[in-house]
Design goal:
The structure is a homotetramer. Chain A is α/β, with parallel strands linked by helices and about 350 residues long. Helices cover about 30% and strands about 20% of the residues of chain A. In chain A, the strands form two sheets. In chain A, strands 8-9-7-10-13-12-11 form a seven-stranded mixed sheet. A six-stranded parallel sheet of chain A has the order 2-1-3-4-6-5, with helices on both faces.
Amino acid sequence: MIRAGIIGATGYAGAELVRILSGHPDAEISAVGSVSYEGKPLSGAYPAYYRLCDKICENEKDVIKKSDIVFAALPSGLSQKIAQECFCAGKFFIDMGADFRFKRENDYRRWYHGKFIFPELHEKAAYGLPELFRENIKGSRLVANPGCYATAVSLALAPALESGLISPDGIIADCSSGVTGSGRKITQNTHFPELNESMTAYKAGCHRHTPEMEQTLSTVSGKETHITFVPHLIPVSRGILATCYAKLKPGVTMEQLRNAYEKRYGREFFIRLLPDGCTADIKNVRLSNFCDISLHIDSHTKTLIAVSAIDNMVKGAAGQAMQNMNLMLGLDEKAGLTSLPPAF
Amino acid sequence: MIRAGIIGATGYAGAELVRILSGHPDAEISAVGSVSYEGKPLSGAYPAYYRLCDKICENEKDVIKKSDIVFAALPSGLSQKIAQECFCAGKFFIDMGADFRFKRENDYRRWYHGKFIFPELHEKAAYGLPELFRENIKGSRLVANPGCYATAVSLALAPALESGLISPDGIIADCSSGVTGSGRKITQNTHFPELNESMTAYKAGCHRHTPEMEQTLSTVSGKETHITFVPHLIPVSRGILATCYAKLKPGVTMEQLRNAYEKRYGREFFIRLLPDGCTADIKNVRLSNFCDISLHIDSHTKTLIAVSAIDNMVKGAAGQAMQNMNLMLGLDEKAGLTSLPPAF
Amino acid sequence: MIRAGIIGATGYAGAELVRILSGHPDAEISAVGSVSYEGKPLSGAYPAYYRLCDKICENEKDVIKKSDIVFAALPSGLSQKIAQECFCAGKFFIDMGADFRFKRENDYRRWYHGKFIFPELHEKAAYGLPELFRENIKGSRLVANPGCYATAVSLALAPALESGLISPDGIIADCSSGVTGSGRKITQNTHFPELNESMTAYKAGCHRHTPEMEQTLSTVSGKETHITFVPHLIPVSRGILATCYAKLKPGVTMEQLRNAYEKRYGREFFIRLLPDGCTADIKNVRLSNFCDISLHIDSHTKTLIAVSAIDNMVKGAAGQAMQNMNLMLGLDEKAGLTSLPPAF
Amino acid sequence: MIRAGIIGATGYAGAELVRILSGHPDAEISAVGSVSYEGKPLSGAYPAYYRLCDKICENEKDVIKKSDIVFAALPSGLSQKIAQECFCAGKFFIDMGADFRFKRENDYRRWYHGKFIFPELHEKAAYGLPELFRENIKGSRLVANPGCYATAVSLALAPALESGLISPDGIIADCSSGVTGSGRKITQNTHFPELNESMTAYKAGCHRHTPEMEQTLSTVSGKETHITFVPHLIPVSRGILATCYAKLKPGVTMEQLRNAYEKRYGREFFIRLLPDGCTADIKNVRLSNFCDISLHIDSHTKTLIAVSAIDNMVKGAAGQAMQNMNLMLGLDEKAGLTSLPPAF
């Protein structure tokens, strides 16, 4: 059994990874790390895990020591030293934060106010979006797990951009996220009575997943691509819905679009391109690693409307991390990720 | 006291109008009409009204007879004959459906599959969006109350278009609505366990509020204007959030934008232009006739992001209808509409 | 106009009182007090009030000075000195906390760990449950507004106890509350993703509204009465549902029960005794001062099941406080409290 | 692989069984049956299953033919003939409805208005509550899967009754259920805007799970036991919380209670007796087969408050059915049921 350790296990992404890893046929949780719960059982933070995962939270050193692969689910800025330590100790490492997502240090500096401490590590890091960059991940010992919004938007648009069916200018990504996306830390605006029956946008046009999306879409389109991204918060626990708008190149038909998406995603287990007449819904991917995508055309304005839905905690975080682990370690990419999403 | 009658009082818009009219200082509910509840008390359909509005539902003839002004909250296609009847009997009439919203019969034919039965009535009808067309409403005896999405989107964009600060091409209106927007009729997808924890788009790029928005925005901009409109359904009871995207003309600043919105809306009681740093939220307008608007610029793509929030049942239906009634009858436009929205 | 001041206006109960008082025909809000928002506008805490109540929060001294009647919506223990100050200054005072609810200092000591600082004030205080103790309230300048659970349970059971139709032994009050009941202070268990889709009991058998209920029910029944009370937290914003169980005396019929309730509540505007076949629902009283009550008999165990529903923030807090104000000042008891509850 | 067929697969319980069975290591879904979807893929009813379970729905005959064990998730009254057919064909049969739950035909007649068509089958049927009647289930080919409320209440009270620590008189079971408990059929009161932000009781004192609870509790206590049962509907999708009240026998302590529960449930995987200070919450058992139980004493009224939480669709339906299948077929009782509940 592969020994997998999780640093930051009491945050939402870490706790979700515990749930998913527990069902992996070839891996076991070797240790869970937490600063706030050190010395206490994980089920103290999450009573749903009572008697099922009562492991005592440890410090990061001990987690690394006990593990073949280490996942870090930490606020940005805290992963680089851990990555270096894992690297030196010959461990595999997956960063669920933003520290290794950027090719250009400038992007990281500007949006995260940090710097590349070990530049050579960043060169080794693969960006862990398997459906677009699988081969890079396979050979890597250090993977940067993508941001949740970046996953949903990049998957929704990549085939259309790659195939040149849409213009790379004027793309809009209008997204909505469930509240787990803001983390477990309590805040006034996530207090139940304030969030219930509400919906608002936030960081309109200036959210820091923007450069991450642009990096991926630029790679895919082969030219510098900019997008306007606005996230919203909705009163559900899980899920991201990305409604993406792009100008169709003259004469482009739905058939051409479907062909491009089928070509890119036809063999992907975790991407479900929905049939005509269906629309992606966060409900249908909850608690699963699937990304549902539906394609629509506004014919009177010649606009592609690509809608994607993921569970922000699974394909947008823990599930994709485990998918990356599977690839890094040469396991079946789907291992531990094949459960049906609940129907309701 | 003005005698106000409501046809279609057991639908959501009609029932909401009952609630709002009950608080009007100068009007009283003379009669409520319903086909499905004829002969039964309105509170049979809505137990919240028990002992407060136990009026017996009547047929439409009787409602008209007992009223000075008649509101029709009916499925599209059913209002034209009622309007004609009211007109002949010298009554004021407000249609909360789509029958009188279009200037061009072709739009109505194409999107609603109906025709103009009494073309001269359509010429008399005013489009009841007071903040943009107040003077037309004041002199009218027949008002077409706007659609909920059309209200939110038109108000969000009008000043920017009118002042020429944005391009009329490539506008996107990405909207989300609470479930009351789909009406009281039960359907599988509005069954609680199916809708709870879900979010999806519907009628992407082909919803029939599109031509209504385009008619208003074309009037305001002075040129044929097209937009891409995608509505979504979210698991809340009330509210519409409209996130609208438009290309800024070169060099346009936030200051210019705010000036244009202030100039248009500065004296409007029901429009609250939010200060910088705030974003419109459906929570803050619930159960009120307010439309909150916040302005944002994505400076790296030179895009205006205008966000508006209304209660789809109030400013998007019953409240705006009452505002129109006030204007038609020469009352204080705000009468009966000044309650504070609940803080939570 | 009566000048009404609110100390603790940024808590939920205080903010709700602002909303309700704003609609009062004979009173105006003279000042709002807050420690955390002193010097800032109330709408900074509640953007729903933007431009409608932008009053600057003041300290308690200033609030008292500017007011004829003072409401204190404060944590328990903080009202006694304010009450004394108001008393000396000849102001009316309504305490929305627990400081003046108990006749016996021992109850207050045991459950709230406080003491009676000015015992003579406690003798003057009336317990503000108008439907049971109206005459005491009318003559009073100091009213203790009841707890939300205590209101729902006392109203549900009083007529049956008073009339001797149920046994005073073995009464169970099983209640559920919306989340505003726990206040505006953020906590882990009221963080949206933790509370959403949850339901649990808390303080089972040891909640401090128990002695308050017992004090009222003992008064009503004329003998020491004990009850078992368990509150639950449910994922809605507002509302308390109280399902109360009591042993019927031998041979008691539904007709006798209805007569007892009709006799007690038949002329009460704010209590709606529902017809047979209906059951009280928190939805139907939201944002209103009504208490809906339905009566049911389990004939095979000879048990009365009395179900009551209130809005915990209105009849359970701010609305009842305003009802008490109306009584204290000799106004129409219903003034400002007659709006219809929303139908949805 | 064991071939398992599901009749009534498009209802909520049937669809949930599809999800759970899909993860079983030793069984596979041989066929799914549905009247309303016959000839169509199951994923047409539940798009969450798209590409994962696109099996075509068949009629019941074909389902039986293709299966070693048949589950019927049907309205009451429709299972007896199917059971007989399975019995004659030598198949195992689990009825998820009420047809085989009663020992006494009179109970079934009175509460379900049906009769025992094949009385000998009823004698063979085991009542499938494994934690109380495991040995009966092991030897059986026909199991009646318990009702959801009956499961939650029986498990909460059995050890206390069995050990004689509480009085069998005057027991109250106050329960709340998520909306999936009312099934997939659309109704006005489960329309999202009507149910959202609501809570009400229904069938107070006369719900037909009452005799089922009484049958089990009478068996356990060894004497005819009656209870008062009131269910409530709350705006969540899944979960039952049962708050049960019973008079403690004189002098009974929490330690004695815990010992009785530990003795009965200490080795049960699916029952988690929570430590002192914790309270059962439906959130912590969602999507799992666990039943969490917490014990509380109201010492001033000498009352046991036993709170249990289950997922009504899993331990209350499909999960328990699969647990029964495992027992009937001699498999590991936990097979396919060991996933962690989601932490949020």
